[in-house]
Amino acid sequence: MAAEAPVGLWINAYETPRVTGYHAHETGQLFALREGLQVIETPAGRWVQPPGWIGWIAPRCAHAAQSFGATAGWSLHIEPAMAAGLPDGPHVFATTPLMRALVDRLTSLEASSVDFEARRARLVGVLLDELAASARPSLHLPMPQDKRLAAMAAALANDPAMPDTIDQWADRIGMARRTLTRRFTAETGLSFAQWRQQSRLLKAVELLSLGDSVTAVALSVGYSSVSAFIETFRKNFGCTPARFFEEGMALPQAKKKPA
Fold this sequence. Notes:
The protein is an alpha+beta fold. About 40% of the residues lie in helices and about 20% in strands.
């Protein structure tokens, strides 16, 4: 890996939310936020990226992106040959202390230092090895491809507090409940109930990232009990909402990326 060189590393900041339409890169892209929130979308699903998690877009993977609030972070484009061990689609990785230390060193390297390119390539190689070897739960909401199911899923993803039952949705989109259940599971890998819970939890991560209180978030995503929301969150992510954001990525003061 050390023989290959990253294409470029940028530290960037944007004061206002940004929306980027569908596009693709010939290179792979790693990126992370120190503040703000980003949602990556492909026809196959949505990925939520809060501060402190590392996002990945595979080479030539068409995707769209939307940020929320002011954002600051880093972006690294790398050659496809360096990323053979990473997923072939988008992914959002939980980080470890070693990953954070590697990023801190990468973003603090002086371009004028001796053997700058070789040192950076070695650091990137270790970071990629760590990502490839890490456990791979991702903040991902798979989306169905059937047009009627996709419209239903988009409505629920945008407003997961909607109380409509699966029977009500079946009537609304003109599909038998049994057919809806079977197709939805086949196209997303999750039952309707599992998918709805995932949708609520990912929307909760979005809102928590933007500074909403745990109580407000629980009610906003459809839980009538804050304690039930906290317990579901803990079972899914292994920690409470309060602890989820305790450790962010170590990032330097951001500078705006050149236009």
